[in-house]
Amino acid sequence: MSGLCGWIGHSASVIENMQLVQRMAAPLARFDASEVEADAEGNSAVAVAASSDSRHIHKQDGLLVALWGRPRLREPRLVQLARTEGVARTLGREWRERGEKALESLTGVFSLCILDEAAQEGVLAVDRMGINPLAYQEHGGGLVFGSSADAINIHPRSRSEIAPQSVYNYVYFHMVPGPDTIYQDQKRLLPGEYLFYRKGHVEIRKYWRMQFVENEKRPFQELQQEFLNLLRSSVRDAVGDQQVGAFLSGGTDSSTIAGILGEVSGGPAHTYSIGFDASGYDEMEYARIAARHFSTRHHEYYVTPDDIVNTIPQVAAVFDQPFGNASAIPAFYCGQMAKADGLARMLGGDGGDELFGGNSRYAKQHLFSLYEKAPSLMRKGILEPLIFGLPGGAALPLVQKARSYIEQASIPMPARTETYNLLERYGAAEVFTREFLGTVNPSNPAALLDDVYHENNATSLINRMLAFDRKFTLADNDLPKVAKACELAAMEVAFPLISDEIVAFSLRLEPHLKLNGTKLRYFFKEALRGFLPDDIIAKQKHGFGLPFGVWLQQHRGLQGLASDSLSSLKSRNIIRADFIDKLLGHHLDEHAGYHGTMVWVLMMLEQWYRQR
Fold first, then answer.
1. Is residue 500 located within the same domain as residue 557?
2. From CA 274, how far away is CA 335, in angstroms rounded?
3. Interval 64-117: pLDDT, tens
């Protein structure tokens, strides 16, 4: 992958430091052979592995500045300076003059470090959406950092003990939510955060926060024109001077990016789609509708069960911590096709749902909220006694639905979003061994959810959910999924829909323009009506969902890999052996798609352990 790494507070000769930081950078370049640029002082060092337009290092008078990504400076004066002397040197100058406030000058996609050895100070930061990750570990007054834990763990002062709580959280969320990592003493920066280091002490601060403006009224035509202009400029910036293609699932986001890409590039866009020969999972026809509509150079591949068997060990290895989103597999095959076609960068449509209100659960939670708003006397005094006290009601489908609705609506947010969570359904005591449960706090996931849900300034339900999903769905899940899948294919990736400018635009949209009753992404669809095909605007969200559970019942290779992986996992004394047996037997027979997800999550946990 691309990335940066380094440290401050570990003394050695400059030559020794250069050798060490270059070893740390090796994992960052192992899949795409990115060029590594490094520099060092006696007490600090940095390295960046990336293509030339994403790699920026400057050293002057004991100051080391390193940036990975495509950062932009906001002030015209600084833009001009960066053109002549480079963005890293300009940022170093700003740091000398303004200290931490220099971060306010940056926008775009980046992670960075500024190390001032003489002052024994430093700063680490990531972009506003957390696209370029950065983790860190304190050690005896010093600080080691890297875009990947695989880089951090090479440093002699690092510690790589697995954190039981992070393993528990992985099984709950199917990824490890930030700021935690899979390692006990390593943390990672959240979107818009920076770390300030001074003489052995570390503080985590925010240089940017999501601030919703929920009552700004503007004419639709004015909003539409601004939005279309932002889409074009964001896609243009994401393309740069690279040969670029686009993921195309046939949804509104990927179709929009494909269409705009054709506009700004002045020719047919290369688009890439994945299909599955499994009933209910193949959405290729919608991708073809979009491809025909925009006259793209369309490329398709049907992933097979054999492909999954062959790819799982590689996918597990590319992540620096366990990761259980099965859609990484189709994303990898899209990237692989694009690489074979000579392209350098893929554009993903990720983020549109979390900015403009596209996930189906938003409409569902809106319906539950209507019950919450009903007068207590009506709910507790009339409806609930009637529905739950009706003789023989359990045998009536309509009454069953009413009871289920009331039970779910009575759960407060955000816990209500987890009513279908696999671990909640099974129960932690049924899944984990007693010894393992004694080392963790099973309430930790609920506390994480609650903290994120209530930390923003939104008053509307939809904006609270959007802020919530930008953390757990986007930053913790979808962005690393696509980025790592592309890394495995030796491809760069960019996400035009979550440019800083489009994010700022979405924060000012009135809530009803995101969720209008139960109409999802209302403004987005209306603004693009006439640009997107009507069939795409009307379709239900799907994406590159993998029919793993269905295929697991039929394909011997998948069965063998799953059985072997979960058999080995039993010996780690994390998951109960009887639960694994039940999961591979009764549960899978009961509902292959639903319970197959847990098989995948546990299989990828074991596969990740094997790679370490």
1. no
2. 11
3. 999 999 999 988 898 898 888 999 999 999 999 999 999 988 999 999 999 998
274 shares a domain with 138: no
Amino acid at 124: L
Contact 369, 410 (CB under 8 A): no
State the pLDDT at residue 1: 59
- Whether 60 and 194 map to the same domain: the answer is yes
Residues 612, 501: one domain?
Answer: no
Residue 270, helix vs strand vs coil: strand
Same domain, 11 and 115: yes
270 in the same domain as 189: no
Residue-number span of the structural domain to which 148 is assigned: 3-206
Q: Looking at the structure, do residues 25 and 98 belong to the same domain, yes or no?
A: yes
**Count: domains in the chain:** 3
Average pLDDT of the segment spanning 421-445: 97
Distance CA 539, CA 159 (A): 49
Residue where a domain terminates, one of 538, 557, 580:
538
Rg for the chain, CA atoms, rounded: 25
Separation in Å, CA 375 to CA 405, 412, 415: 16, 16, 22
Mean pLDDT to the nearest integer, 192-212 = 96
Distances, alpha carbon 242 to alpha carbons 30, 119, 258, 341, 489, in Å: 21, 40, 16, 13, 16
Pairwise CA distance, residues 224 & 226, whole Å: 6
Helix (H) or strand (E) segment spanning residue 588: helix 588-590
* Burial (CB count within 10 angstroms: exposed 0-12, middle 13-18, buried 19+), residue 444: middle
What is the full DSSP assignment across 21-87? HHHHHGGGGTTT---EEEEE-SSEEEEEES-GGGEEEEEETTEEEEEEEEEEE-SHHHHHHHHHH-H
pLDDT, residue 593, reads: 86
Q: Looking at residue 397, what is its pLDDT?
A: 87
Interior angle at CA 458, CA 208 and CA 105, nearest 5: 15
- What H or E segment, with its residue span, contains residue 340? helix 328-340
